[in-house]
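Our consortium's second objective concerns turning raw sequence data into structural hypotheses that experimental partners can test. To show how far this objective has progressed, the report includes one record in full. It was chosen at random from the queue rather than selected for favorable results. The single chain below, 431 residues long, was entered without modification.
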Amino acid sequence: MIRVESLDQAGRGIAHAAGKVIFIEGALPGETVTYTSIHDKRSFEIARVEAIVEPSASRVVPRCRHFGMCGGCSLQHLDISAQVAVKQRVLEDNLWHIGKVRPGTILPAIYGQSWGYRHRARFSARYVAKKNGVLIGFREKRSSHVAEMTGCEVVPRRISALLTPLRKLIGALSIRDRVPQLELAIGEGVDLLVLRALQPPTMEDAQLLQQFSDQYHVQFFLQLHGPESATPFYPLKNKALYYRLPEFGLTIDFSPTDFTQVNHTVNTVLVRCALALLDPLPGECIADMFCGLGNFSLAIARRGSRVLGLEGNKRLVASAQSNAEINGLDGVADFLAVDLFKMDSQQLSQLGKFDRMLIDPPRDGAMELIKALTEETAPSRIVYVSCSPATLARDAGVLVHTKHYALSAAGVINMFPHTSHIESIAVFDRQ
């Protein structure tokens, strides 16, 4: 038996024995458990729970019958409020141990509904000859195998109910062994599936896909190569994908393979919170770094500030500019295609002086951009939205220790309930 002390970033219980760290899948802090070893190394061990001798008061019964086998969720056995507390602790630990910084204020957690929240998902598909059938779902834990799922609790119920019909559909196609993936994209009043195929469907396949579309009210895109090759398959005159930011009177159009937040409800709260923290004033010049489709840029422009959005993906830049025009913000919000991972101080100075800056980078963070800041170009406030506590902590260390900023506040965003994925937001003020 062993006593579990805390959770790691993968949602595994952490314990210590015989000078080793033991990571135990399925164990929660405060529990006494027995375990079975999976990988035993010299300094650490990976294990799974065998029996729970003393359960945590925060342990709950997982809602999904596939939990434990499916790799999509790792924390359904932990009460949702405790999940948020664990993520907050992971964020604070990263900020201190990696960046040697502590926030002046802990922000209230941003959260929304706990189930049926995913409006984006990438399901793997695999034809299994021995079963003469197709599996559709997320990958199994610690495996490249596709989990045999008949439902999913983190997508809307109508989408969960499609998994079994989709298995039958793909299994009936002539290209059933050439379809590795289905990507879900949900917009306002639109459910869309991108069929990733290694060869085009036949005419007979097309008829089956059309029948499915008509019966279940979904649209199909076909992707034969990279994400940019995804095009409407049926119906050809498809309804546009968009989401709303009603507080700002915005409609954001997107393509099914564009990056958008998976959780539209939490994104709405996040934009509101980010704008409140950034506090842009009419007439100020604001930079939105890694701006994507203009999710934050257009909300800032609605407040009367001039915005320059920078993004490395030219297709997203074109979409952001189009969204500015759709929302009557053309000329107030402008967008440029710039590789922010190669930004230097000269390039940054050529963009002009910004009063405030919002940064929302991918997992790699924004180190080159932050290093490029100088006395002349450093804005008075930076709001940093992060999907990786480790890179946020690394970048925070540079901002605080070499760029003369204070970490005024930080907090978590529970964008992905029941997973160990941690989104966060931080505020840096120039000293």
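The partners drew two points from this record. The chain has ten helices and 22 strands. The first helix runs from residue 80 to 97. Both points have been shared with the crystallography group to help prioritize constructs.
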